[in-house]
Amino acid sequence: MIDYSKLRAALVNLERQWENLEGSRDRDEISELDLEALQESVIKRFDLALEMSWKLLVKYLVEEVGLADVPNGPKPILRLADGNNLLNGRIEAWLSYVQARNASSHDYSGAKAGQTLAVVSDFLGDAIWLYEKMSRQKWN
Q1: What b/e sequence results for 92-111 when a residue is b if at least 16 CB atoms lie within 10 Å of its CB, and e otherwise?
Q2: HSE-up of residue 123 (Cα within 13 Å, Cβ side)
Q3: Where are the domains of the chain?
Q4: Could you report the per-residue pLDDT of 9-35, keeping only the tens digit for each?
Q5: Alpha-carbon gap, residue 2 to 10, rounded angstroms
Q6: Is it true that domain 5-135 has CATH number 3.40.50.1860?
Q7: Closest by alpha carbon to 90, among 69, 52, 119?
Q8: Which residue from 130, 25, 32 is spatially nearest to 81, judged by alpha carbons?
């Protein structure tokens, strides 16, 4: 049996920090340094949640779908998951999440950070959908 609790925790943490960042953008008392720290936290949590998502997809494809041999790496896993109707027809979005993650993996500032932050909201929706699909549990 696959344990989805860590993925759920990662998504909850990302969701909370995303809401915190969004609520902080227009507050005058938030310094640029604090805003940057919030952005970095969201990016790191996005990175963790994305990694957990594709790695759990590997387990799901083997244990639940019954595939004997699965490739390694997020892009081939996502393509295989899409072929098994596990991404709600949103393969291009998932590939863009990997691209955004790769772009910001060592640089959380500037345009690269902006590229990642731009996909977080969509990622949350897609990752929660995937969590529900794989775990067969409602999000709330």
Answers
A1: ebbbbbbebbeebeeebeee
A2: 32
A3: 5-135
A4: 999 999 999 999 999 977 888 888 998
A5: 16
A6: no
A7: 119
A8: 130
Q: Which amino acid is at 124?
A: L
Question: Which residue is it, tokens 């500032």?
Answer: 109
DSSP of 20-39, one letter per residue?
HHHHHTT-TT--HHHHHHHH
Q: According to the model, what pLDDT value does residue 63 have?
A: 95
Q: Is the dihedral of CA 39, 140, 4, 55 positive or negative?
A: negative
Amino acid, res. 27: R
Non-local CB neighbours of 43 within 8 Å, separated by 6+ positions: 104, 108, 113, 116, 117
Tokens, residue 27 = 């507050």
